[in-house]
Amino acid sequence: GILPASGGFSASASTTVTAAWAAAGANGSAVTNYQVEVSGPGMSGVTDVGATTSWSFPAQIGHYTIKVRAQNDIGWSDWSGVAEADTWTNPGAPGGVNVSASSGGDPGAGQVTVTWAAPGDNGGASITGYTVVLSDGKTATVDGSATSHTFSGFSGPSTISSANVSATNARGATGPAGHSSGSATVTTKPTLSSLAVTLSGSPADRIGVEWTVNNGGSPITEVSVRYRRDGDSWVTPSVDESDTFWQSAAGLAPGTYTVEVFVRNTHGESNTGTRTVTIDPPPSASPSSSPSPT
Predict the structure, then answer these.
(1) Which of 62, 123, 139, 266 makes the best surface tag, with the fewest CB within 10 Å?
(2) What is the pLDDT of the chain when averaged over all its residues?
């Protein structure tokens, strides 16, 4: 007889099982053949593989046990100990991917939430993580037990046209992405983006106010402009919600004026912009010259 082959076996991620072993001791007669006995999904029996010391076979997803024995002109060795191999492949795509967005709140506080269902096929190993990617490039990696993830930091209007979710299993294999079927738009309170105050007239006694707005994804429903001189009461002129410019009447009294502007949409009020401007007194008339005595 001859000494048993010693085995070391591994499975590849492409569902191919490879058995490899050290050559058996010949005991005076060269080894001419090895037999490999396999038990597992779709595979059961003994295969002669010749004098090679490794053998591969295509496998299904599951658990396999393998053992080897050697043959020479004298006969067969004992069987080696049993080696085990688990095969796997890429998981399937997560299903039911959906993207939704929050409405309301301050600019920068908007949220987009992606939900999904675990893939029906885990590829032969438990799902350990998901990668979630939004159409704007934002990406998150979450635990394998999760079925949702919320992204923060959006200002309205921000439209996410799609979301993709892919699963990774315990073997490190990542499957195809599941895709959302719709889009979502974040809407928030508006933002007063810029504010400028100018003087006009001769003398310069008329205030002009100009502003730009990000409406946060919802129409502007109110524009508020008010002004006051020094410590006087506020004056609030009538301004249309579509306006981006207002000008006072001429003839404002000299002094330092404070101007404030904010806008509003259905979610609430924007930040308030404040500017100051000074109207100078008109120059004094020069005294007339008296005639020189003769």
Answers:
(1) 139
(2) 91
